[in-house]
Each structure stands twice: as structure tokens, then as C-alpha cells.
Amino acid sequence: MANIKSQIKRNKQNQARQLRNKAARSSLKTDAKKVRTAVAEGDADAARTQLAATSRQYDKAAARGVLHRRTVARRKSRLARLVNSPSEG
What we know:
Helix content: over 70%
Oligomer: single chain
């Protein structure tokens, strides 16, 4: 346990940020899953719509520092490639 006031405050801040980031990452995983589900069902319009919304959420997460910008770019790219794949129809 920290004895220094500033470290006690820092620990509280870290805990609050950890919870906020965890919720954001969980939400992003759910959004990505919705895109993959739409692709699996063959619903191209829903997949594209969901991809746009998910990309926006990823960008917001990168801006807030929840995820690294390159991680966001990689995940968005993979989802876009999945949605735009020729096998999708």
C-alpha cells in the first residue's frame, strides 16, 4: 500500500482508467463480432453499415488512448478485408 499522497491518488486514477478502458475494449469486441456475424449470414448491407459504425468506435478508442493507433488500424483493416472479400458475394 502506498504511503505517499500523490501515489495514492495515482492508484485511484489508474483503477478508474482501467475500468473505463476495459469497458471500451469489451464494447469494441462486441461491435467487431456483429460485423463478423453479418458477413457470416451473408448480409452485405448490414455488414457494411456495422463496419462503418465499428470503425468510428475504433477511431474514438485510439484517440482516447484505449488502444494503440496501429492496433486500431490493423483491426479495422482485417474487418474491412472480411467485409469486402469476394467470397462474401
